[in-house]
Design brief:
The protein is an alpha/beta fold. The protein has 2 domains: about 280 residues, Thiamin diphosphate (ThDP)-binding fold, Pyr/PP domains (Rossmann fold, 3-Layer(aba) Sandwich), CATH 3.40.50; about 40 residues, no CATH class. The chain has 12 helices and 11 strands. The strands form 2 sheets. An 8-stranded mixed beta sheet has the order 2-1-3-4-6-5-11-7, sandwiched between helices. Strands 8-9-10 form a 3-stranded antiparallel beta sheet. Strand 9 and strand 10 form a beta hairpin. It starts with about 45 loop residues before the first helix and ends in a 10-residue tail after the last helix.
Length: about 375
């Protein structure tokens, strides 16, 4: 059910989370709730839900130690359809709530489900600070380039010129590239996949769950009602061969198949471009071929690759852009608390709390 992306999947991301007793096994049915799944027919959310339900048993974790936090939007119905703990929270604030949960409960595997409107508009600050802090959580960002739940307004990822209920003359906004945004915020794990590619989606999810820190996975997802066919060009099997740039760690960044393959090479000023493989040596560019390396501390190369994307979807990078190790916010915060308790000679008592409450920084108002 997975493909090789060149990334080791050691489950360090779930270290400290209770696992199932030896011999116990779970199936997809164990993670499906009794709630009726209510999305529009043809919505890409169905495929993502099926992939997640099918993948969760592979973690080998107790269901009661997995939690899904969502914001507001079609994707945010997710917690209802999973037989785990979860919370349908408020618009854009899922990363903030998940930060508190991950920090206070190291025994939980914390997931965030959000959409392009929820995460990148009202939730923009919460998203970038979760990535900057590197909180141990996995964020699934469903991107259908439209507001679906509120009936078809353009979103922060909608393409210029898109006619919607809130842009009857066509959107004039410049859209976000979520991958570029995540890399700019120093996200330690950044990836992109697609709802209709079950094998790729599952493989990326496994790598994201294995990462300790903030994992951000952008998932291209179709909205058949308000933005149908947004990713039609890269869902067609023949078009994929010429348009999708499959990122594999340790291999040259390339597009196309044998005979028509092109390699990504570095140009002047940090720019990158594709050159037919047969012309690379002839042009003296062999030393300029970009070899994908997800572990680079400097995100510049990954950022350059993310910028290959365009409105025309001529070159669409797909896979893991970055996966680096950095101390997590929650691990460091808990370590500070433990250190403070040790320095204080043990946990606070009721007398300590009274002293704090009525200390020298308090005021008494009479009259």
């Amino acid at each position: 059910m997975s493909i090789d992306l060149g990334i080791p999947t050691v489950a360090s991301g779930t270290a400290g989370v209770p696992t199932l007793p030896d011999g116990d096994k779970q199936t997809r049915k164990d993670f499906a709730s009794d709630q009726e799944v209510r999305w529009c027919p043809g919505c890409g959310d169905y495929a993502i839900l099926a992939a997640v339900q099918g993948f969760l048993p592979e973690l080998g974790l107790r269901k009661e130690n997995i939690t899904f936090i969502s914001g507001i939007g079609c994707s945010s119905r997710f917690p209802y359809y999973l037989d785990t703990y979860g919370m349908h929270s408020i618009h854009g604030r899922a990363p903030a709530i998940a930060t508190g949960l991950a920090t206070s409960r190291p025994d939980l595997s914390v997931w965030v489900v959000t959409g392009d409107g929820d995460a990148l508009s009202i939730g923009g600050n919460h998203l970038i600070h979760a990535m900057r802090r590197n909180v141990n959580m996995t964020i699934l960002l469903f991107n259908n380039r439209i507001y679906g739940l509120t009936k078809g307004q353009y979103s922060p990822t909608s393409q210029p010129g898109l006619v919607t209920k809130s842009s009857p003359m066509g959107s004039v906004d410049a859209p976000f590239n979520p991958i570029s945004l995540a890399l700019g915020a120093e996200g330690t794990f950044v990836a992109r996949t697609m709802d209709s590619d079950r094998k790729h989606l599952t493989s990326v999810l496994k790598a994201a769950a294995a990462h300790r820190g903030t994992s951000v996975v952008e998932i291209y997802q179709n909205c058949p009602i308000f933005n149908d066919g947004a990713f039609e060009l890269i869902k067609d099997v023949e078009q994929q061969k010429a348009r999708l740039v499959h990122l594999v760690d340790g291999e040259p960044v390339a597009i196309g198949e044998d005979g028509e393959r092109e390699l990504l090479v570095r140009g002047e000023g940090g720019s990158v471009r594709f050159v037919p493989e047969g012309e690379v040596s002839a042009q003296g560019l062999a030393d300029h071929v970009v070899v994908h390396d997800v572990t680079l501390t400097d995100p510049s190369q990954a950022f350059s690759i993310s910028r290959l994307d365009s409105e025309s979807m001529t070159h669409v990078p797909m896979g893991i852009f970055r996966a680096v190790d950095r101390p997590t916010y929650d691990d460091q915060t808990r370590a500070q608390v433990e250190s403070a308790v040790e320095l204080a000679g043990g946990p606070a008592t009721d007398d300590d709390l009274q002293t704090l409450l009525y200390g020298k920084d308090t005021w008494t108002v009479e009259g």
